[in-house]
Specification:
CATH topology of the domain at 68-250: Penicillin binding protein transpeptidase fold
Number of helices: 24
Structural class: alpha+beta
CATH architecture of the domain at 68-250: Orthogonal Bundle
Radius of gyration: 32 Å
Mean pLDDT: 88
Keywords: Carboxypeptidase, Cell membrane, Cell shape, Cell wall biogenesis/degradation, Glycosyltransferase, Hydrolase, Membrane, Multifunctional enzyme, Peptidoglycan synthesis, Protease, Transferase
CATH superfamily of the domain at 68-250: Biosynthetic peptidoglycan transglycosylase-like
Oligomer: single chain
Domain Glycosyl transferase family: 67-232
Helix content: 40-55%
Strand order of the largest sheet: 2-1-5-11-12
Strand content: 5-15%
Distance between the termini: 100 Å
Number of strands: 16
Domain Penicillin-binding protein transpeptidase: 345-570
InterPro entries: Beta-lactam/transpept-like, Glyco_trans_51, Glycosyltr_51/Transpeptidase, Lysozyme-like_dom_sf, PBP_transglycosylase, PCN-bd_Tpept
GO molecular function, one term: serine-type D-Ala-D-Ala carboxypeptidase activity
Largest sheet: 5 strands, mixed
């Protein structure tokens, strides 16, 4: 019987070993097939310092600094020995002995993972971790693990141990967009690494093990606890004495985080959003995207290009008017009060056509959704001036005193109604515009032709228009996706003097040496004749003086505006211009809801008045 069980166990063991070898053979074949790819992809790229992006206001004063990544790469000889020891003793004690991977560590990890049933323990060397950071994805799979071994071995053939360790110390992630131990020293303590104490270096070394869990700005106690474990590791390997270890543990760690200038995040986030579009236009990505079948690849190339620029220390010169931005933020937030009601407001200077002020929501932070840049909503009747009335004056002999039927009207199955279902007779165009009647607007659009009206609308920078929007409902603000306050304010600048020059936050972009990199090369487009412009300014002013924008007031002289309300009162809009500024305002909730109760307050009128002042 014992002999039988012995034979059975031997057979099972043989089967198991054969199965393991089969798996290894499969992985070996996969990896071998990629050897050529591996050898060609191993490149020794220098780790470059990453400089902050500076954003300047219209007076060329810095109002914001953005760190995509904070790096201060150091040569290995400039990294203190204790910093090297902390990493080696805690991460890869046999670093100078292995060939890129540690067979015994992998075996221990394999046993641990087999016991747990999960791929949780990696047994990775410093070389493997560097490979993972530079060449491979972070997901844990056995196929990737085998590939990782080949990369690690090849890397060890190309680089010296000192080069690998130096790269690793400069690549490790220290949370808060900080990379490399040199960058961590200047970011968290504002001191060169060589000037830090053993306690401070150990504190920094604690972070990369789990950058979220050991983020010292959020979980300081976690970081301190791991620092003390690392100090024990130094004592264990006789790098410091037990007494020195206890002294280091007792040393108070006081962070001195590198300060950043971060004023007006609503404006800076809009400017950085615009930067991508500027790079796409200037370097041909925009044209390539319109023609390409594989847009994802080009988008990725554009993203990489922008990322590189953001790391290179560029300066973005903007049109921000800081005193106005601060005043608008305070006034609009006060008008909105507490609660969930939100607003998006964009204001353009009439002379420069630069965006000088942006409101993107209450208590806005740079990580928040920028409503002025990306908050597309149905614009309601604010599109009527752009798609109906200005094109009407431009292409016909109609004048504000001309008459139009305000009675019931249908085009096919589309039968719009006036507010409250009211039916009127023949009224002057001025009256139809003043009270924003719907049926006259559709009649007049049909008079000039849908393609004509929509053609004028397409001349502006409405990024979300689609072919499906070429319909009569668009004149009443019924779009597929909607518009933003920035797009609407941009279009309304054409009523300043009939010309259209796209409004921008960015004046120019310069490199770290002050050399010009990019600027908008837009040309002025004269869309409206002086006659049309005069008529439209009269109509917009009449809406303020006698119509639906009756609560609007500025002390600047001229002011004209057009209001818009969407179905079920889910969005309130007002757009127009004063003597100094062109402004568009959206008022609503992030999750749309009926706001009929807010109609009589005319809150959006007061917001417009504050921004247009």
């Amino acid at each position: 019987m014992r002999k039988f069980f012995g034979i059975l166990l031997t057979a099972v063991a043989a089967f198991f070993i054969a199965y393991i070898f089969k798996l290894l053979f499969v992985e070996w074949e996969v990896a071998q097939a990629r050897v050529t790819q591996i050898e060609s992809s191993i490149e020794l790229k220098e780790v470059a310092s990453s400089l902050p992006v500076k954003l300047l206001d219209e007076n060329d004063a810095v109002f914001s600094e953005e760190y995509v990544e904070w790096r201060q790469p150091l040569a290995l000889e400039n990294i203190p020995l204790v910093a090297q020891q902390l990493v080696l003793f805690s991460e890869d004690v046999h670093f100078y002995d292995h060939i890129g991977f540690d067979v015994s560590a992998i075996a221990r990890a394999f046993v641990a993972n087999a016991d747990s049933g999960e791929k949780s323990q990696g047994g990775s060397t410093i070389t493997q971790q560097l490979v993972r950071m530079r060449y491979l994805q972070e997901e844990k799979s056995y196929e990737r693990k085998v590939l990782e071994l080949f990369y690690a071995h090849e890397l060890e053939q190309v680089l010296t141990k000192e080069q690998i360790l130096s790269l690793y110390l400069n690549e490790m992630y220290y949370s808060n967009q900080v990379y490399g131990i040199g960058g961590a020293a200047t970011f968290y303590f504002q001191q060169p690494l060589a000037e830090l104490s053993v306690a401070q270096v150990a504190f920094l070394t604690a972070i990369p093990n789990n950058p979220s869990h050991y983020n010292p700005l959020v979980n300081f106690a976690n970081t301190k606890a791991r620092q003390e474990l690392l100090l024990d590791v130094l004592v264990k390997h006789n790098a410091i004495s037990a007494e020195q270890g206890e002294e280091a543990k007792a040393e108070a760690i006081v962070l001195n985080v590198k300060p950043k200038i971060e004023k007006f995040p609503a404006y800076s986030s809009l400017a950085l959003h615009e930067l991508r579009a500027l790079v796409a236009r200037a370097e041909g990505y925009e044209d390539r995207l319109t023609k390409a079948s594989d847009k994802d690849a080009i988008e990725q190339q554009l993203n990489e290009r922008v990322h590189y620029l953001l790391q290179s220390g560029i300066t973005v010169h903007t049109n921000l008017r800081p005193e106005k931005q601060a005043r608008d933020e305070q006034a609009i937030s006060r008008l909105l009060g507490n609660g969930q009601l939100q607003s998006a407001v964009t204001t353009v200077d009439n002379q420069t056509r630069g965006i000088v002020s942006v409101y993107a929501g209450k208590n806005f932070e740079k990580t928040h959704f920028n409503r002025a840049a990306r908050g597309t909503r149905q614009p309601g009747s604010t599109l009527k001036p752009l798609m109906v009335y200005a094109p009407l004056f431009e292409t016909t002999s109609y004048a504000p005193q001309s008459y139009v039927n305000a009675g019931s009207y249908c085009i096919g199955n589309f039968c719009p109604q006036n507010y409250g279902g009211a039916v009127y007779g023949s009224v002057p165009v001025t009256v139809a515009f003043r009270y924003s009647y719907n049926t006259p607007a559709i009649r007049l659009l049909n008079t000039i032709g849908l393609s004509t009206g929509y053609g004028y609308l397409k001349q502006f920078n409405f990024k979300h228009l689609t072919d499906a929007d070429e319909n009569f409902a668009t004149a009443l603000g019924g779009l597929t996706y909607g518009v933003t306050s920035t797009e609407l304010a941009d279009a309304y600048t054409s009523f300043i003097d009939g010309s259209y020059l796209p409004a921008h936050t960015i004046r120019k972009v310069t490199d770290a040496n002050g050399e010009l990199l990019f600027k908008w090369e837009d040309k002025v487009n004269y869309i409206w004749s002086p006659r049309t412009t005069r008529y439209m300014r009269e109509l917009l002013a009449d809406v303020v003086n006698n119509g639906t924008a009756d609560r609007v007031y500025t002390s600047t002289g001229y002011v004209g505006a057009k209001t818009g309300t969407t179905n079920d009162f889910k969005d309130y809009w007002i757009a127009g211009l004063s003597s100094r500024y062109t402004t568009a305002v959206w008022l609503g909730f992030d999750t749309p809801q009926n706001m009929e109760w807010l109609e009589d307050s005319r809150l959006h009128h007061y917001i417009f008045s504050a921004a247009a002042e």
